[in-house]
């Protein structure tokens, strides 16, 4: 029997309680040669039998020592050595279960590994060795939460199942145990394929355990628990109803004298509690409470499952309090939660759940009675999360987020610590996820508004440098994780032989992980998980070296402030609590500007603007657009400009916008009063955008030597497969070729039938400078499939990410919607321009909406004239000014107003805007 934890059910904005259910493992013990040679008149099995009857630990200790003596008499090469190793491991594990001394469990795991080596493929006992080693690794995972133990357990169970084909007497055992380890991993990582596979395996095991089979009740229980897990994840009521009926059937097979009756009572009670929460039928809740009381009666003091029973009865009483408001139910729940927490040792992976359950009960009582002692005790319990000794789980992160929301709402002093803890746990969780867009939904759900609320809390507490650090840590999380794989290792490579070896290992694993991006089959997922574990281990070893203790850890403000060396960086933040801006300057603390707008108003403004962009080119939208830009100016940008002037940021200076939340979807660069004798932002400062401060710091560090070769590729696709023709692409590429071919080291031109996906992909890998003219195809539902339209199909973000870039410098993306990502997760910046920038390009120009084909051609010539420096070389640091000057030449033309503000610059340069009247609305869009 083994402990199982389920994710909590959310109530409102808080993290819900954790109801524990149990599952049964099957462990075929290898005691075929238990009569060990010994000097004692007792054999170890007889001593163990007496221990099991009377509980005298000295009998168990003596049996362990007899097994040690037996092992000494069976040295390497002895035909029975594997059995002695196996049996000593078994008894040590029993000793661990009695006393909880981790060294006993660690030794048993090592002994089982040694035994397995002596049972190679073909050995009749190999299957049982694989199974037992897997079970012990799983035990250790439950104690320490180290994912590598659980992953190893799963792979060993798979190997054991392979050796138990149809008809094998241990097949149901192997099916059951593999299924339960997969359930454990699902509870840690939330990957549905693990849970679906577990359910299938449990169904197969149940078929092999018909009525009358000794293990049928275990299979009924385990299948019920896995269906309950899936209900909590997917909300399918049939799963929950089936789970309840299976638990009832299992309970009938476990009468009052059965050793697992308390398990079945608990599990049936928990499932009825789940159904009550869905349907509100009080009889389900009352039955749940009585079943939990019966289960607790069977778990007296000293019982290993007493903590779980105390916790679950408390939760059901708390549910009844929430329904009926009877304070005695809540008071009893708090007492039970206290008793449960006392039995949950430090370092246990379930400790955060137990902390959360007690804290939630105290919070309910605080709201009822207003006792400050309950509030402070709840926050004190939560604060223990900042000292977790095990690897952070998704439950740990959810509890920390619940703490942050609760403390911040009440303006409690622990709020800032809560956000710092939650973001630290987020960082650990993201590090455990493979670099695949299949994991993006997990990241999006985990991040939510965490970073923006943390920023707001820091600002309200006057911790402005902390605000910058925290928003950076929780912003563009997916890209930041991916960027870790291309971290420069120059300093590590010259730090000695150990550093050289670790750098080589880091590069190899990073390359393999990036190469595995977008792998989705189960076999590939297993490989990616193993690579991730190895990569994380290398990072840990690098941090142990002198001067590398912060390797790949979130940057400190002193590092981020370097982003402002070329001009101020303005972080604009929208939170449910308030909206603020911070101006990060290179030589002083950040400057705070309160913004007189609510997050709801920002969201409404963003929705209005996004709807308007869909009408550009079809209707006269200038008046509506100007109205939005004026609102942005008066509400957001004008106060920031005033603060910049006070900070002596002179007109025509460069500024970098780092917007969060819905601000990331607004054209801040184009804000203005748009009235006579009043300037717009573009007439005062030259704007660029950055997703994070670290990206700008990184871009500035990648300065190429003056003598480095400049390889330029111009890719144009005016006749894409299934798309509308673009008539101006060919003359546009001709202009680029004429101007740059004499300047650069090499110039490659791919056009129409030559601009195929494979050819474009190859060209991206061999050139540092890119001009791309084609249709841009955003995919807001599946942002990693946003693409550039080539002759034979789409060149997607997920393809671009895998490119083997050679010191890329600059990309001009003359296509539609290249800086537009998923509106549901604007903080993550999943769009085409971001893919280019996070792939290494120091400077990128893209578009916020549709680009007119003719406008693109007109902009190109003037732009590249100004990108060439006085020595006749291309200089990507001139990109912002080059675009500004190119657009300024078109000020008095008939180009539609929205086309003068469509281009934006990301990272190390700029973009601008000018005035004019809209005409010719039938232009072809890219």
TrEMBL record:
Domain CHAT: from-to ranges: 628-895
InterPro entries: CHAT_dom, TPR-like_helical_dom_sf
Database matches in Pfam families: CHAT
SUPFAM superfamilies, alphabetized: HCP-like
Protein name: CHAT domain-containing protein
